[in-house]
Batch of 3 targets.
Target 1
Amino acid sequence: MHFSSDAVFSGTGGPYTEEDTPAPVNFYGKSKAEAEQAVLSVYPAAAVIRISLVLGFPVASGNSFLLRFRDALVRGKEQVLPVSEVRTPVDVHTLTEAVLELCENRFSGLLHIGSTDSINRYELAKKAATKLGFDPGLVKALTEESVSKDRAPRHKNGIISVEKARGLLTTPMLSVEETIKRAVLLE
Ligand SMILES: NC(=O)c1ccc[n+]([C@@H]2O[C@H](COP(=O)([O-])OP(=O)(O)OC[C@H]3O[C@@H](n4cnc5c(N)ncnc54)[C@H](OP(=O)(O)O)[C@@H]3O)[C@@H](O)[C@H]2O)c1
């Protein structure tokens, strides 16, 4: 099982299905798109799972937006998040359940796992702050005009369709609201 990303898409369209052609806009997306091809060419029976933004707290360590975000809010530090980046998040519990189910079913091929609707990263952060018990006013909007020129380009609409997963899995794909609630409450 290989984990890929919505960053394989250009982000100018969407919702993207498993049938859509990758057209990454940055190095990360390009490396993820090349990795998908490499994995499937070496092992055609592999499962390639595309995810958009994983929300959860790590058991030990690891890359966790929520953990960094909460630590910053505890220190009263304002957080600035882009309004122009729309994502289809998944909570780590739902992702884990889906992955276990796919292993049991010996799924192979491409599959998108994420929420049934989408949200921009600024709105998502405000909702997460509220659910974590902080003042959502600590979350500020990063507008397109104020993005640093040094920042690598991002795919704007990281919106993946999860219709295939909904038809295939008994694990339910959740709404954004349910996703944030589950990611935050089951710490
Ligand atoms: N997090 C997201 O929101 C998100 C969104 C879309 C796609 N993805 C994809 O999901 C995957 C995991 O991302 P993550 O955010 O969970 O990252 P992460 O927490 O940093 O985990 C990366 C894992 O890869 C291991 N690793 C890194 N370099 C390695 C190497 N050279 N050889 C062997 N193992 C190596 C790390 O091992 P150590 O723990 O030992 O360092 C770690 O367990 C990535 O493929 C990423 O592109 C993540």
Target 2
Amino acid sequence: MKIDLGKNIKAFYTTIYDGNMAYYTTNDKLSVDNNRQNIALKYDFDINELKYMNQIHGNRIEVVDSSSPSQILECDGIVTKEPNLPLMVQVADCIGVMFYDSVLDIIGVAHAGRNGTFLGISSQMVSKMIDTFGSNPKDIKVNLSPSIQKCCYEVDANMAEFVANNFGSEFTKGRFIDLQGINKMQLIKSGIIEENINISTICTKCSNQPYFSYRNDSGCGRFAGVVVINSKS
Ligand SMILES: [Zn+2]
């Protein structure tokens, strides 16, 4: 599924039909290699330049370039200004977040699960873009991937209470919590314009759309969000 983030940018989410995109969910490394090769052909990016993360449910963001290793360790967000450097986030219920500074041509991806959201990873990414590249948050467009939504994201009573106390009761309904809403609130606090935040309404658990859902099948693969800056030449 292609995402419209801006004219110099290629951005998309893979589906179940593209297969599993994460090495950490399987012993079948070859199948992941093949699936990644196939999306590189399908969406026309250089698989040898792909950067992805091991995703540890934290909030650390790394700046990457073509000299970085393929897998960026110990982080949940990567950001670059380099054209033709595809960045990948892998999810199944968690939120994949894409960032694009449309003036400076800076891109980022982040993995916002429950913990990453609580740690403010979306805000961390905005701060990183400001501090490293001088981004103006008003120029940054954000896209939140298909992910488990408040219709299905049930947690225990203590967790729901934690969310209500720390983020606001508007983000809970009984034991159901709204991680997309919390990310949006954090982004707006970081200076992102509301109209520049696009949140997929697809719930991975109940929509019957072709996206992996960990809560539907804990043995499932991961789909991916990929964003790349097109070459300027
Ligand atoms: Zn749902």
Target 3
Amino acid sequence: MKILITGAAGQLGRALTAELAAHEVEAASHQRLDITRLDDVREAVAGFAPDVVINAAAYNYVDRAEHEAIEAYRVNALGPRNLALATAAVEIPLVHVSTDYVFDGGAGRPYHEFDQPHPLSIYAASKFSGELAVKELNQRHYIVRTAWLFHVHGRNFLSLMLSLNRQPPVKAVDDQFSSPTYAPHLARAIAKLIKTQAYGVYHIAGQGGTSRFEMTRLLFSILGLQTEVVAVPHTEFPAPAKRPRYSVLTTIQDPQILLPPWQEGIHAFARALG
Ligand SMILES: NC(=O)c1ccc[n+]([C@@H]2O[C@H](COP(=O)([O-])OP(=O)(O)OC[C@H]3O[C@@H](n4cnc5c(N)ncnc54)[C@H](OP(=O)(O)O)[C@@H]3O)[C@@H](O)[C@H]2O)c1
């Protein structure tokens, strides 16, 4: 299979490039392909002639988006729209990755694929707009919502906690809940998904829900770190962007896309740290 990956230098982009190494992959970093430029996107698709495009590019600065809305919408909505136009024109599928933050957290139970999104922040609204553009413009779409992504290469919550380990105690929020997802686990599920031609929306995230406090405690205990981890409410870290209190993801789709429990992702992350 010929596969074009956009945003290939990010956490998921790297994991996908490794997972799909047996295929003919064009791993296009931001530097190589800017998805906000329609002509460049069309040229990349025409030049490489992929069988499928996977969009792992995104503007992920949740708080900064509150005052950089145009940039967030350009990357998270216009970019996927460009990819949808370019892939639809040559009748190939597009995998687009979205977020648990499209939900407002008010349901008080895990969200499935047919729950109604209601974004609370500009980042979340820009990601939801990207989903809608992809749905509208390329019917061969896989929209994959994931959550709290982490990888040993990249900017994520766990790497932040490890960097703070030198200044104990480490504080972590215990009143917001989602589904921590190890990027290589997600990449493996996407590799299966692209063979199915079962287009639609998928929730693919580490199974079960937890807080950032519990994630940190588990990681530190696996690594044998003695650092005290203190549970705090989210109000301890005032942030410009509103976040859902409970955006745990569940799926009612094919069981082959089920990921291992989130704890296994933390163990795999700790092993990969070496
Ligand atoms: N990280 C999370 O916790 C999380 C949670 C839920 C959903 N997601 C979604 O999962 C997907 C993968 O996230 P991730 O954590 O792997 O993201 P990431 O590590 O931030 O990587 C995103 C990549 O996109 C690139 N990029 C930004 N603007 C671009 C543009 N205009 N054209 C092409 N590339 C561009 C970035 O390059 P530069 O750095 O050079 O700009 C970066 O390499 C995204 O759709 C994200 O919204 C992530």
